[in-house]
Amino acid sequence: MSQHPQPTSPDAPAPAQGPPALPGGIGLSRLRVYDWPAAPESDGLCGGTPHLHLACTEAYAVTGGSGAVQTLTPEGFSSTPLTEGDLLWFTPGTVHRLVNHDGLRMIVLMQNAGLPEAGDAVLTFPSDVLADPAAYARAAALDPADPEGSARERRELAVSGFTELRNRLESGDTSALTELHAAALRLVSGHLPAWRARFELGPAAEVARTAAHLDALAEGDTSHLASASVHRGGASPAWGMCGRLDKYERTERAE
Q1: Relative to the CA of 149, which of 77, 155, 243, 252 has its CA 20 to 30 Å away?
Q2: Angle, CA 4 vertex, CA 152 and CA 165 arms, to 5°
């Protein structure tokens, strides 16, 4: 889970090779879910900004507090309780909203590290905002002079869109999600070449590296073990979509 991802240009250079990625090329962050109540006309619940991912599966490992995750899928609306020790994950296309009942904290594991940061998250703004890329970009952006205030504003707008989607689904309007998915794709379609480059240099390269290691071991070759090393990740704080984040993006060799 990232702060609102800022899509890169389709012509942006591919990410440079760096230190070893986290296992499987995942992304990892520590999350303290917002305790801001939504507007009374929504439902007044405390929590994060509803959104969906188009290419990445996301997992929550709850480390403290209590709350729930509200989801919208073709099967309808669901609210799953979350308490310490729970592990829950969901696939692309799942609209999700974290609700904070009492100090909800978790570790977030995100598939395809780099893709969410490059824009693989679309907030559930009302349909008129989703239909206008410029309006969407303005609504999703954080104001550097007031990140908390702008994070609250975008959360309110996304909750209003989420409520509209939920109401449509519960009234039997199954087109609500398909329209959202189509709008989300229109917003991100120009960035797919850059996503492909990130994927090829990230998770896909990790899979290829494992395959090469297995091939080498099958032939009795252990030479890759001679490059064994230990690395430490550093956390970067951020105003995320769902709460205050510590994002483990910086990696250094452990001494």
Answers
A1: 77
A2: 70
Q: How many Å apart are CA 138 and CA 143, to the nearest integer?
A: 10
Rounded CA-CA distance 238/240 in Å is 6
Judge whether residue 164 has pLDDT over 70. Answer: yes
| Predicted structure pTM score | 0.89
Can you read off the two tokens belonging to residue 226? 């001679």
Which residues are 95's β-sheet partners? 72
- The answer to whether the beta carbons of residues 194 and 10 sit under 8 Å apart is yes
Residue 205 CA to residue 87 CA, distance in Å, equals: 27
Q: How far apart are the first and last CA of the chain?
A: 29
> Would you tell me the crossing angle of helices 133-140 and 147-170 to the nearest 10 degrees?
120
| Class of the CATH domain delimited by 23-208 | mainly beta
Q: What is the pLDDT of residues 58-79, one digit of tens each?
A: 999 999 999 999 999 999 999 9
Q: Using the 8-state DSSP alphabet, how is residue 36 labeled?
A: P
**Exposed, middle or buried by CB within 10 Å (0-12, 13-18, 19+), for 146?**
exposed
Per-domain residue ranges of the chain: 23-208
pLDDT in tens, 86-109: 999 999 999 999 999 999 999 999
Q: Give CA–CA dist 197/99, Å, rounded.
A: 34
